Amino acid sequence: MPKSIKTKRTNKIFRVLKSKKFKDKLGPALFLTRISSVVYRGRLEKKLSQQQLSKMARTTQRIVSEIENGNYNMGSDLLYRLFKVLDKELICDGKNLISGEAYSVVVTSNNYASFYQKNPNKNITLNIMTASMAVMQTI
After folding, report:
1. E strand or H helix at 29, and its extent?
2. Between 121 and 55, the higher pLDDT residue
3. Between residues 43 and 116, which one has the greater pLDDT?
4. What distance in Å separates the CA atoms of residue 11 and residue 34, rounded to the nearest whole number?
5. Are residues 7 and 47 in the same domain?
6. Are 97 and 88 in contact, with CB atoms under 8 Å apart?
7. Helix, strand, or coil here: 134?
């Protein structure tokens, strides 16, 4: 392949990657990928088949498969049912959106934020590397 064609293709790829349209779609796509990974790993941890999980979450096996493959943009009701069945947590602003339990946030000097569940019967600590300390400090 001539160098000029290769350079044009490379430049076009970089323009697409820098475009607002690409950046606007990247965030939701990454979020959906993270959710699909949590559902897949959670199902394996519970030793459930897709069919078993679908019955417990009141959906179909096809939809569970599409979610695990990152091809299904589910609504909040299905997300809630899946996380509830799989005993997964969705933490936002110091609160588990699935169970309603509150968390306190402690930002340590090594750029990690620790979420401590306020329920003393469940002593869980999640350490998350912070992308932006300013965001974590506002929680």
Report:
1. helix 20-45
2. 55
3. 43
4. 30
5. yes
6. no
7. helix
CA 2 and chain centroid, separation: 42
Contacts (Cβ under 8 Å, ≥6 apart) of 41: none
Which token pair is 99? Answer: 């169970």
Q: Which domain holds residue 114?
A: 89-139
Q: Is the pLDDT of residue 16 over 90?
A: no
Helices (H) and strands (E) in the chain, counts: 6, 5
List C-alpha distances in Å: 81 to 68, 85, 129: 15, 6, 28
> Do both 71 and 95 map to the same domain?
no
Q: What percent of the chain has pLDDT over 90?
A: 34
Residue 123 has pLDDT above 80, yes or no: no
3-state secondary structure of 118: coil
CA 20 to centroid of chain Cα atoms = 22
pLDDT of residue 138 exceeding 50, the answer is: no
In total, how many domains does the chain have? 2
